[in-house]
Write a structure and sequence with these properties.
Number of strands: 8
Distance between the termini: 31 Å
Helix content: 40-55%
Order of helices and strands: EEEHHHHHEEHHHHHHHEEEHHHH
Number of domains: 1
CATH superfamily: Cytochrome-c3 Hydrogenase, chain B
Number of helices: 16
CATH class: Mainly Alpha
Low-confidence stretches: 290-297
CATH architecture: Orthogonal Bundle
Shape: globular
């Protein structure tokens, strides 16, 4: 029997149509139909300059906004050969890890709610509100911040931010303990997820899995650790991996990643406070891209470059650029092909959720119909980045 799972089903996020071929309650084939949220983001980026394209990446993975901005900004900086100040690299690491916590809270709590546990959802969203307050302190917006930008960040850390942050980081680990008391040590939760949606390391690599989906198989692949972009190589942290490659391991990996994000955020905040800060230092020390403050006192050429940059945008170098970061869902990549213009000739995005959803047929084969909900929950799919 062939049935439609979604897009009306709550676990299908409103934009996934899954055509399932069943034999009784056992799934023989799962065919994802995507594109219901397609907005043509890649083509829109090809008609925008570097700064104008930034708000579009905010709307891709719309629960990991600043990590999307981070990847986009790194790609622009590589193309234009911009060197970013150490202070702003640390701020980027801090906001990226807060965003990772923000994402995993949603992923774990909605997964639990899909399976049948409501209380963790209420707890997690209380913590998400606190994180949204940090977003608002930094950028003035609670979701689409446009805070991480090519060359640095939109503005420096405001007064009172760190005192609020330390209070949150000290108390948040106890909230994780509460969620684990409700779920990890609950025999219903354990029996519901253990042995469901299993995949080997070899198959996970063949399907292009990254992030918690790949680390759940036991392979410690983390771009923050392996490539150390920005200043991740200066911060010590632990990369959690699974043992049994199933839904429960993927849940446990995300829980431990939140604990590691607390450590990374604390260290990054400590380094930022120790960093000397010159109030006259501009983010980009290159007059042909952006001038220092008081540029009109320097020379007319600086004023001309400043005017051209704001009217035409930054001119890309004539080369191909691909940058990927360890987003909460996996490896998120930005590819730019430019020909010396202020807009890219080609823009392409690598979304981890697209590849994870492509592996759903393998993950759900010979599982029960009710297990599809549990498997989709551990995929942590957001269709802004999948449909694009």
């Amino acid at each position: 029997m062939s049935i439609n799972f979604g897009p009306q089903h709550p676990a299908a996020h409103g934009v996934l149509r899954l055509v399932l071929l069943l034999e009784g309650e056992v799934i023989k084939k799962a065919d994802p139909h995507i594109g219901l949220l397609h907005r043509g983001t890649e083509k829109l980026l090809e008609y925008r300059n570097a700064v104008q394209g930034l708000p579009y990446v905010d709307r891709l993975d719309y629960v990991s906004m600043m990590v999307m901005e981070h990847a986009y900004s790194l790609a622009i900086e590589r193309s234009v050969n911009i060197r970013v100040h150490r202070r702003y690299k640390l701020i980027r690491i801090l906001v990226s890890e807060l965003t990772r916590i923000l994402n995993h809270l949603l992923a774990i709590s909605t997964h639990a709610m899909d399976v049948g546990a409501l209380t963790p959802f209420l707890w997690a969203f209380e913590e998400r509100e606190k994180l949204m307050n940090f977003y608002e302190m930094l950028s003035g917006a609670r979701m689409h911040a446009a805070y991480v930008r090519p060359g640095g960040v939109a503005s420096d850390i405001p007064a009172g931010f760190f005192s609020s942050l330390y209070k949150f980081l000290q108390s948040f680990s106890y909230r994780i303990d509460e969620i684990e008391d409700m779920l990890t040590y609950n025999r219903i939760w354990y029996q519901r997820l253990r042995g469901v949606g299993e995949i080997s390391v070899e198959n996970a690599l063949n399907y292009g899995f990254t992030g918690p989906m790949l680390r759940g198989t036991g392979l410690g692949w983390d771009l923050r650790y392996l490539r150390g972009y920005d200043l991740y190589n200066k911060i010590k942290f632990f990369v959690p991996v699974g043992l049994f490659s199933d839904c429960l391991d993927r849940y446990l990996v995300r829980v431990e990643e939140m604990r590691q994000s607390i450590t990374i955020s604390s260290v990054a905040a400590k380094y930022i406070l120790e960093e000397s800060f010159d109030k006259d230092y501009d983010m980009i020390d290159n007059k042909k891209i952006r001038t220092k403050r008081g540029f009109m006192k320097h020379n007319m050429e600086s004023l001309i470059h400043h005017f051209k940059m704001y009217t035409e945008g930054i001119r890309f170098s004539n080369k191909d650029v691909y940058i990927s970061v360890e987003a909460p869902k996996g490896e998120f990549g930005v590819y730019y092909r430019s020909e010396g213009e202020s807009t890219p000739y080609r823009a392409r995005l690598k979304a981890p959720g697209f590849l994870h959803l492509a592996g759903l047929d393998f993950l759900s084969k010979n599982e029960k119909l009710a297990d599809v909900v549990a498997i989709i929950g551990t995929l942590d799919v957001v269709f802004g980045e999948i449909d694009r």
